[in-house]
DNA polymerase III subunit gamma/ tau C-terminal domain-containing protein (Sphingomonas aurantiaca), 77 residues
Amino acid sequence: MSADTLAELNTLLKTVTRTVWKVSIVDAPGEPTLKEQADSAEEANRLKYWDSPLVRAAREAFPDTRMENWPGQRSNA
């Protein structure tokens, strides 16, 4: 990202939010994005049900089964 792009972004953010922003590029690993965090939580929730005794028994009886819906599933809308 060029310095001009950063300056434009800072100006745009200030115009839209009426707050001064300072955006910079840092060469360091960052935190997971909000989407990555939500996806990780969603997968953990899905696995909780996938590994539950009832679903495990269903998987053993029907090996090709897949779980399409589960409690707490995030909406795709």
Remarks:
- The two ends are 32 Å apart (CA to CA).
- Residues 31 and 61 are 41 Å apart (CA to CA).
- Residues 34-50 form the longest helix (17 residues).
- Helices lie at 3-17, 34-50, 53-61.
